[in-house]
Amino acid sequence: MRSLIELVESAARSGRRARAAEAAQRIDEMARAAGTDWARGTSALTRAQVSGGAEAEALYREAIERLGRTEVRTSLARARLLYGEWLRRENRRVDAREHLGFAYEALSQMGAEAFAERARRELQATGETVRKRTVDEPATLTAQEAHIARLAGDGLTNPEIGAQLFISPHTVEWHLRKVFTKLGIVSRKQISAKLAQSAQPLSYSRSA
């Protein structure tokens, strides 16, 4: 399903709308069988990219609502980016800035630099002045990432962390990969040392 998601976006952006629509239909069939917010939100997002007018907007908004109820923050950020891009093309610059700004901040914090740069360029196209983040800015963990980082630093395994936070071990692993990227580390053993570098707990943001 994830490869089909990327296919829809790349095909839609390169003008191969029939190919994008075909992939979006396959995603929708799988999403209906799964029934989860992530699957149904992703289906709405892919169908929005091959739709137009009021239908496209309704699908983008459904995607953001459903994905906002999941732990998969990258999917939500990319949905806000795509919706913001669509709004800008519709000449709704003020509305576009809200979603593009969210996407830029969230994607930057996640370390998704290519997508963050895309959001920044789109923001500039709306007339917004955006300062490009520099690589030496301190990493900022989300509340969930900070909590998981501390538990992992205490020696808990992914299943143990998942049991405490009521999320899957796979989701824990996904968050830890982002923690490693933001903190510039490569293993769990380095987490405690990184946190111990400051007398205060590592700062985090609740926004992403």
Would you give an account of this structure?
The chain is mainly alpha-helical and 208 residues long. It has helices spanning 2-13, 17-34, 37-48, 53-67, 73-89, 93-110, 113-125, 143-153, 158-165, 169-183, 189-196; strands spanning 141-142, 204-205. 71% of the residues lie in helices and 2% in strands. A two-stranded parallel sheet has the order 1-2.
List its salient traits.
single chain; 208 residues; mainly alpha; two-stranded parallel sheet; 11 helices; 2 strands; 71% helix; 2% strand; globular
Q: Unreliable runs, pLDDT <50, ≥5 residues?
A: 198-208
End-to-end Cα distance, whole Å, is 24 Å
Largest sheet: 2 strands, parallel
**Radius of gyration from the alpha-carbon trace, in angstroms:** 18 Å
Helicity range of the residues?
over 70%
Number of strands: 2
What number is the mean pLDDT? Answer: 84
Tally of helical segments: 11
Order of helices and strands: HHHHHHHEHHHHE
The rough form would be described as globular
Strand content: under 5%
By secondary-structure content and strand pairing, the structural class works out as mainly alpha
**How do the strands of the widest beta sheet line up side by side?**
1-2
